[in-house]
Amino acid sequence: MSEKLKIKLSIANRVYPLTIESSQEEGLRKAAKNIEVMIKQFEQSYSVRDKQDVLAMCALQFASQVEQKSIDKANVNEHVEEKLNALNDLLHAHLVS
């Protein structure tokens, strides 16, 4: 049974207490750090005063990265399937002749 941890993460000057599995800690801390870095980048690049807007931009950025990876993976899988089918056809032609 995994040990539960109580941690606090700070995002956009707010502290969020969480109870998590110990195996999740590293990922959550890295995610919070990445959010903070992105917040600073958006604040420096755009004249955004409202943290809500910056957080929405961060959420959109992260969500689009996840979606793009899913699209890329589907394209790679399709390409691999095509190559395997072509290889299978070559092997079948060679074995039959």
Short description:
The protein has 97 residues and is of the alpha+beta class.
Descriptive account of the structure:
It is built from 2 helices and 2 strands. The relative contact order is 0.08. Helix content is 69%, strand content 16%. The radius of gyration is 23 Å and the shape is elongated. The chain has a two-stranded antiparallel ribbon. A hairpin with a 2-residue loop joins β1 and β2. The chain has 97 residues and is of the alpha+beta class. It starts with a strand and ends with a helix. Keywords: Cell cycle, Cell division. This is Cell division protein ZapA. InterPro entries: Cell_div_ZapA-like, Cell_div_ZapA-like_sf.
> Could you tell me the radius of gyration in angstroms?
23 Å
Strand percentage lies at: 15-25%
Q: What number is the mean pLDDT?
A: 93
Stretches where pLDDT is under 50 for at least 5 consecutive residues are none
N→C terminal distance: 58 Å
Please estimate the helix content. 55-70%
Enumerate the strands of the largest sheet in spatial order, edge to edge or round the barrel: 1-2
Please write the string of helix (H) and strand (E) elements.
EEHH
Secondary structural class: alpha+beta
Shape annotation = elongated
Number of helices: 2
- Give the total of beta strands: 2
The largest sheet, given as strand count, sense and whether it forms a barrel, is: 2 strands, antiparallel
Secondary structure layout plus pairing:
Blueprint: E1 4-11, E2 14-21, H1 25-45, H2 51-96
Antiparallel strand pairs: 1-2
Helix pairs in contact: 1-2
